[in-house]
Specification:
The chain is of the alpha/beta class and 313 residues long. The chain contains 14 helices and six strands. α2 runs antiparallel to α3 and α12 runs antiparallel to α13.
């Protein structure tokens, strides 16, 4: 096989293709591609999206000659994708929804879900960008700027997808809420809220945010909830996701306090080096202000410092 090819078969009598079929399969396709590369995945993904269009399928069934059948495919591909690859779709700079699709095999359902979401968004007049996590890796990847600016994210997946970027999006979800709202949510939290935190309004939004995500938005991912809850104070036993969100909040681009450049350099060395410096900075600041220090922060610093010392031998 030296060049990719697509073959199609239209049956006069529909058959039951597999156990889940409804007995009405009358269009069969075969994709052939060179062994090296992943072009067959791209071809399959594009074909699956085209077949989501009922008018296109009807035209294939009505085609009277092989040429008419192939011309129908060419016309639909041109109309649906133009000269641009569907993996390089541009995101309009207006109100929008972002989405991520993924399935265990990363072939058909990943792209069918993407097409269904795009069609639904188009019908509602909402520009939508969908990242697909197929067998050939993520395509049309959502950027940090897009995530930060969007109005909502849909994760349509029955396998694990990378979540750190979404935890970063929602970590400050309650920061602008009124004090009484933050306090109420904080006091409803089932996570360990210490007396020092209850007396420090600046950390309430993290605790309140995690509770809001759990109760209002149905977020059940404990790693995401912990990352939001502890992004201001830290804790012992932080996962890598929790550390990333904590540290990213400390060294984000708009930060300009003393030592932030050193903190960024430490973070570039390693996650724990950045965490140790950031936690020490926070502790020193609290001591200088003669403020109460949550035990979570002390325990986080001790743990990270111990890990660094063990690594250094």
């Amino acid at each position: 096989m030296t060049r990719p090819s697509l073959a199609a078969l239209r049956l006069k009598t529909p058959v039951q293709y597999n156990a889940d079929d409804d007995g009405k399969t009358d269009l069969l396709f075969m994709i052939a591609a060179p062994e090296n590369g992943s072009l067959h995945i791209d071809m399959l993904a594009r074909l699956m999206q085209m077949l989501m269009n009922e008018d296109f399928v009807a035209k294939l069934r009505a085609a009277k000659t092989p040429k008419e059948f192939l011309d129908t495919i060419d016309a639909q591909e041109e109309a649906q994708f133009g000269n641009e690859s569907f993996t390089q779709e541009e995101l309009p700079a207006t109100y929008r929804v972002l989405a991520v699709t993924a399935c265990p095999n990363g072939i058909a359902h990943t792209y069918m879900a993407a097409e269904a979401l795009n069609k639904a968004a188009q019908k509602l007049g909402i520009p939508c960008k969908v990242e697909t996590n197929g067998s050939d890796g993520p395509q049309n990847v959502l950027t940090a700027d897009e995530i930060a600016a969007c109005d909502g994210i849909i994760v349509a997946a029955d396998k694990n997808v990378e979540t750190a970027r979404f935890a970063g999006l929602v970590h400050d979800i309650c920061k602008e809420e009124p004090e009484d709202v933050q306090y109420t949510l904080m006091m409803q939290s089932s996570m360990d809220v210490c007396m020092e935190e209850r007396k420090a309004f600046k950390v309430w939004h993290g605790i309140a945010g995690a509770e809001l995500l759990r109760t209002k938005f149905g977020v059940t991912d404990e790693d995401v909830l912990h990352a939001v809850r502890f992004h201001t104070v830290g804790r012992a036993g932080m996962s890598n996701l929790e550390k990333i969100v904590y540290l990213a909040d400390m060294i984000s681009a708009e930060r300009d306090y003393p030592d932030v450049d050193v903190m960024r350099e430490k973070a570039a060395e390693s996650l724990n080096a950045g965490m140790a410096y950031a936690l020490k900075y926070s502790l020193i600041k609290l001591v200088r202000r003669e403020a109460l220090i949550p035990h979570h922060t002390v325990e986080a610093y001790n743990e990270v410092l111990t890990e660094l010392q063990q690594q250094e031998g």
